[in-house]
Amino acid sequence: MTTIPDHHDDITVDWLNDVLRSAGEMATVDSFERRPIAEGVGMMATIEMVDLTYSDGEGPDTVVVKLPATNEANLGVALAFDLYRREALFYRDLAERTSASTPRMFFADAEGPGEFALVMEDLRDYRLGDQVVGCELADAEAAVTTLARLHAPFWDRVDGDDFEFIPYETPSVHGDALRDGAAAGWDPMVETFGAAVPEHMRAVRERFLAAIPAMQEWLVTAPSTVVHGDFRMDNLFFGDESGQEPMVVIDWQGCLRSKGVRDIAYFLTQSVPTDLRREHERDLVERWRSALEDGGVEGHPAERAWEDYRRAVLCMWIPVVVIAGTLDSDNDRARAWMTAMIRRCAAAIEDLGSLDLLPEFEERERDDPTPV
Question: Could you tell me if 43 and 95 lie in one domain?
Fold first, then answer.
């Protein structure tokens, strides 16, 4: 392969031909045109559509090329969390081991923390989710079923060397960066998003931040599995046409070894409109748990799944703070979905009485105050 391009301006015909031939496509690219995606989408990387013209043979009309972020704040977060290597290696080494659908990859590689490239199929015929709007019930049902298809094959089987590139929630560089990001991001979040952060969350600032290590420790108590880590509407493509997959999941930069219920809590409290969540969340959590059983998972009863969900909902305020407090929110689209994320998660914490569980984590931290 030719050197991974640093920027989309560095993409060449020769590089595209190398990529396609490595994926088994025998057509020859003669020229191409690039188009950026919408502002506020793909914040942790730069993503462009590349339309291809061939001198001979037939290949994809369009591919999607994903390269490192150019925004310095977002690039810094991506490097701190080793996001690029995680995503490239997930697609290359693990995607085929789960029945959760992912896009076809023509190329996925990382040569260092800040050098990576993905070239994937164009999913324009699918319907892209919108985190600002949220989802309908049918989409939420498809989402939790897809998560079970991801989680079940890896359930309690993630300790091998082939999972080395995926960090545990803690102890890991990921866990350290998330803790530090929450501490640094809380006040900027409140300053930037104002009234979106309700008083019941502002009031527990110090207690919550102090309990984060214990929350992270709980998230790695058995059983662990591979989780997506950023399972939200903007990363989900829905198949509405005959022959399409019900859902295709993109953006695996944040994959982790953690509790599967982490993904469920992240999705239901950040991407599902609050009224819909309130009405259907027990059924949706049970749909996920039942689909795990269908995938071969045993010993995970309904009441345990529900109580773990309540705890995970509280833990998911950690990424809310990091995202809203440390990432660039200067464009309208980013500010809109971050605002929705904050409001929905805070409402879920209140609805479920999850703050009542905070003393449990505080006690765990007092019993073992050693930093993880």
Answer: yes
Distance between CA 313 and CA 268 in Å, rounded? 9
CATH of the domain at 214: 3.90.1200
- Whether residue 189 is found in the same domain as residue 116: no
* Closest listed residue to residue 305, CA positions, set 324, 287, 332: 287
Contact 223, 156 (CB under 8 A): yes
Number of domains in the chain: 2
Write the pLDDT tens digit of every residue in 124-173.
999 999 999 999 999 999 999 999 999 999 999 999 999 999 999 999 98
pLDDT tens per residue, range 171-188: 998 899 899 999 999 999
Q: What is the pLDDT of residues 254-278, one digit of tens each?
A: 999 999 999 999 999 999 999 999 9
One domain, residues 166 and 208: yes
Residue 51, pLDDT above cutoff 50 = yes
Are 248 and 239 in contact by the 8 Å Cβ rule? The answer is yes
CA distances from 84 to 65, 184, 203 (A): 13, 23, 36
Say which amino acid occupies 203: A
Residue 23 DSSP label: T
Q: What is the DSSP string of 167-189?
A: -BSSSSHHHHHHHHHHHHHHHHH
Return the CATH number at 29.
3.30.200
pLDDT, residue 65, reads 97
What integer best gives the mean pLDDT of the chain? Answer: 93
pTM of the model: 0.92
Domain end call among 86, 121, 156: 121
55 with 144, same domain: the answer is no
Strand 115-121 with 105-112, pairing? antiparallel
The residue range of the domain holding 76 is 8-121
